Amino acid sequence: MTAVRIQEMGGIVELADVGTHQLPSGETVQLPPVILAEFERDPKKSTLCIYGHVDVQPAKMADGWTTDPFNLTEIRGNLYGRGATDNKGPVLAWLHAVESYQATKKEIPVNIKLIIEGLEEVGSYGLLELTRKRNDSFFADVDFIVISDNVWATRTPALTYGTRGSSYFFVEVDGPKLDLHSGVYGGSIQEPMSDLIALLGSLLDHTGKILVPGVTDDVAPLTEDERKLYDNISFDLEEMKRVAGVKHFLQDTKVLGTGATL
């Protein structure tokens, strides 16, 4: 449906094959294609690539929805439905922006490319491989990438230029081969649960600062220009606490609250 909509708008569309995936049951399924599309191809213009996804998390009325999550509903000027903000709504907003230029017969100031997938919520299977394969073709002339997959901290539109990353590690703690009696063996052997708790507790201090040696060596320090930008951000700590359902944050100012401690 998304690909057809783009084609009807005059876009050039390719449904890029990203292969198959094996389910835990052993069954192999074909992955949905990734949409690669573009509206302009003027070498004199910069090229903007827009990323989006049209898959969503599961939703049902029993989860607490007051309206059908898969039937977009307007209530007092607000739109309710699964994917309204993450991420069907933003994808549609970009298409509407292109349509607005077309309807007013105004020239789009940049070349527009789109990459739209249907597996973001489960890990974007095949997407990384696809982008690497097309690095010297579809993405070769891309100057900017926009990801409209976020929420506003207030009612003021926000331009997000960075987010936190994640690192995953797998740890195994060895212990006795048997389930031992604590009254007999307690205090005389290394207990895996206690060891694991101690290990995890050594990663952070009580303020959330990472204690792993060298982990922040390559992290760029907060510059004075960035700090000034944060001062002007429309960000209400008290409202953020209310939304998060907590009484305190690890930091008490919006500048440090943005993650400068990391």
Automatic annotation (TrEMBL):
One of its GO terms (molecular function) is metal ion binding. GO terms for biological process: proteolysis. Keywords: Hydrolase, Metal-binding, Protease. GO terms for cellular component: cytosol. It comes from the Eukaryota. It holds the Pfam family Peptidase_M20. The keyword Ubl conjugation does not apply. The keyword NAD does not apply. PANTHER family: BETA-ALA-HIS DIPEPTIDASE (PTHR43270), BETA-ALA-HIS DIPEPTIDASE-LIKE (PTHR43270:SF16). This is Uncharacterized protein. It comes from Coregonus suidteri. The lineage of its organism: Eukaryota, Metazoa, Chordata, Craniata, Vertebrata.
